[in-house]
Design brief:
It is a single chain. The protein is an alpha+beta fold. Helices cover 28% and strands 30% of the residues. A 3-stranded antiparallel sheet has the order 1-2-3, covered by helices on one side. The radius of gyration is 13 Å and the shape is flat.
Length: 79
Amino acid sequence: MKVYYIFDRRHIASRLREAPVELRVYFGKQKGKFIATGIKLYANQWDKMVVNRVDAIQLNRQLHLFKKKYEDAIHSMNV
């Protein structure tokens, strides 16, 4: 199982256009799912976490809790 963030998977982000941060969940070799986090950022606001924003700490905390929720759900299914 792998759970990680994908930013701008469609390559649309720029300094003028936002792109979504999504969570990628792999269940096996080819079984994966993209889950929307509801957070959109400009190209200069992502570096494996949210940067260059006034609310960066809050958004990083929100992303961490979002990822943890899915990791816990997947872990509970594997028990």
